[in-house]
Fold this sequence. Notes:
globular; 29% strand
Amino acid sequence: MNYEELEAFFRSLDRSLFVEGEYKRMAQVDHPLPIGFEQTISQPSLVLEMTFILGPDKDKRILEIGTGSGYQTAMLAEFAREVYTLELIPELSVKAEKRLRDMGYENVRFRVGDGSHGWKEHAPYEGIMVTAAVEELPLELIEQLAVGGKMLVPVGPREVQELMLIRRKPDGTLEIRTIEMVRFVELKGKYGWNREE
């Protein structure tokens, strides 16, 4: 996947398919929008940037934590070999699966559940995309990252987080760096601000 291919698909992907009601007319605005259940669809420019950084392609299996409306999922599915996506809220997962199936994507597997634990049965993954914020690095997800793989995750307090890129180097050690400051909704569960002990 090169940037030109990604950008062309990004421009062709109708964001209004992933929002409902009054928000459809705001779909082209570069801003997060509500999708119900106190969740949001990320701003398009950030979705484009994060997809490019993760670099999905046809030899990579991607784990997505936080399906949401399926907008980011579609961006990943277009280029990856397989996408495994987890969503805690059943209603969002069902709607996202229907959207993506209607769009013809057969390389996405959906699961309802706590994304904190990942999807261990299909690990390791060449890419992991976390689309909700955590208070601390999610170790269970990092363990599911393949050698040479990359993970993007927003880490920090409620007000603002660091978008961190984690790479597993050939010797198995981790390289961690901050890409930019962002603000995401909370990843519910073990690693969120309101985590259950």
